[in-house]
Every structure is written in C-alpha cells, then in structure tokens.
Amino acid sequence: MTTMYNTSHNSQCSRRHLIMNPHNIRLVALDMDGTLLHEDKRISRRTLQTVQKLADAGIRVVPATGRGLDGLRGTILQVSPICHAICSNGAAIQDPASGAVLEETPIPIPEAIRLLEYYRDRPLFFYLHTSQGPVRPEGWKESGLAARFPYLRFDTSTVPDLIQWLGGTKASLWKIGVFPHSDQAFQEMLREGSPLPSMKLMRTGECNIEINSVHASKGNALKSLCARLDIPMSSVLAIGDNQNDIEMLRFAGVSVAMGNAKEDVKSAARFVTGSNEADGAAEFLERYFWG
C-alpha cells in the first residue's frame, strides 16, 4: 500500500516552473547507475553541466533510482534545484533538501522477515533501504563487497542480524538488496523469482538483485509525482538502462534507453542513445533540447 504525506517545500522548489521549451517537456526523470553514471560510479562534468542547464531552464529534474537518498549525494545532487527524488526503485519519493518522505510504498515487515528466513542458508548478502537509512548485517567489509561497491554507505548502520533488527524496528522498509556470493547463487535466485507474491525480484546489475513491494516501481512513483505537480505524462522525458526502468520508460511521453541497456529495455523506449561511458544521456539531452 502506498502512503502519501503532506510536506512543505523551500521557495526554490515550490515556485511555478513556467519556462517552456519547444518539445513541451516539463520534467526529466533520470536513472543513475548505468545511465548518468560511468562504470566507476562517477558523474562527468559534461553530464552535470547538461542537467544543470535543464534545471536553469525551469525543467524539473528528478533522479529515479534504485539508490537511497544518501547514494545521490556527490553525484546528481550537485545540480540545483532538485526538488524531488524517486528512490529505492520507486518505494519512496523524497525531498532531497530535507529528506522528508512525500510518499512511500514499503514492504510489510512480517513479509520481509519471511523472505530472509527463506534465504537464510544460501550464499547471499542482504542489505536494507529503510526510512531510517541503509542497514546491513556485520561482515560487509569481510565479504569483499565494500571494496566492490564503495557507493553503498553503511558507515553507521551495521547490525548483528537483519531479521532481529526488523523484528524491533519502527522504520519503513523500502527495499531489500541482494549480493550473491557466486554466479550460481545469482542465477538460481533469478530463475526462481520471488518466493512471496507480495514482493517482486529484479536484476538491476551484473551481480545484484533488488526486491521491492509488488506495488512499488519507478513508473508508479513517477505517475504519482506528476499528478502532484499537475504535469501530464506526455510532458515527461525519461532515460534508463535496466529492468527497473522499463515501466517508467513506457509511461513517459519521451522515453530513452541507453546504448548499454539490454534489448528488453531498448524495446520499451522510443529512442536509444549512446552508452553511459560515452555520456549518452547528456548527448541525447543536448541534441533534443538544443539541437
């Protein structure tokens, strides 16, 4: 179930965006990993300048990502203003300035506990996105995953046991992330799919899987945000590269898949641009808006 909240916004974000453009695009939704970011998880100067130019023109820039809000700092949040962020694959819409939750679609805690118990004896490393921030069990550094995924920030959120922590928390659970320790475990989990009908399982990278409520998606969050802002979906441009972007691409008036995307993502989009390593998102935006 999706929960909506009433929140106030700063003056920068609450002002009416009246500047139009030849294509009548009023909002641009941008995936991060595999789209705006290079493989080293950095954002290029060219991409930042291009996105800033959109924001300066009065077009709303909305990150739409599997990351939590903390994972956006140092990348897209260098652009100003960014008034909304779709996080954790659409499970939360937040105000980046305050962290306030505007809307959430959490995983029921009892269901999450059942899922973790189901996978308890498998070679899988789980972490959580919650309304209190990211949470992971002990052993993250020892597993070697900290070195492979330095953008996952768990500095102050280590707990002895995730199931025990979930049993005592009052936080909302937005996403369960999974890093299998072997390709066999990875492929087996993908092949089986979600063991519970209340949750969906998605491959969001070459070696990671993410689990959300069946009601949470970037597409649903984008539609809800646009309804709040009175922006028709025909005035939305979306860019993405992965399975969790497909619904968002199908909903947007203008949809763009990255050159590094898999074929099912490309088939959901109207346009295909260059790869993330070649700043394909910036290239498309520059040509689309400024020729």
From TrEMBL:
<dbReference type="GO" id="GO:0000287">
    <property type="term" value="F:magnesium ion binding"/>
</dbReference>
<dbReference type="InterPro" id="IPR036412">
    <property type="entry name" value="HAD-like_sf"/>
</dbReference>
<dbReference type="GO" id="GO:0016791">
    <property type="term" value="F:phosphatase activity"/>
</dbReference>
<dbReference type="Pfam" id="PF08282">
    <property type="entry name" value="Hydrolase_3"/>
</dbReference>
<dbReference type="InterPro" id="IPR023214">
    <property type="entry name" value="HAD_sf"/>
</dbReference>
<protein>
    <submittedName>
        <fullName>Cof-type HAD-IIB family hydrolase</fullName>
    </submittedName>
</protein>
<dbReference type="InterPro" id="IPR000150">
    <property type="entry name" value="Cof"/>
</dbReference>
<dbReference type="GO" id="GO:0005829">
    <property type="term" value="C:cytosol"/>
</dbReference>
<dbReference type="InterPro" id="IPR006379">
    <property type="entry name" value="HAD-SF_hydro_IIB"/>
</dbReference>
<keyword id="KW-0378">Hydrolase</keyword>
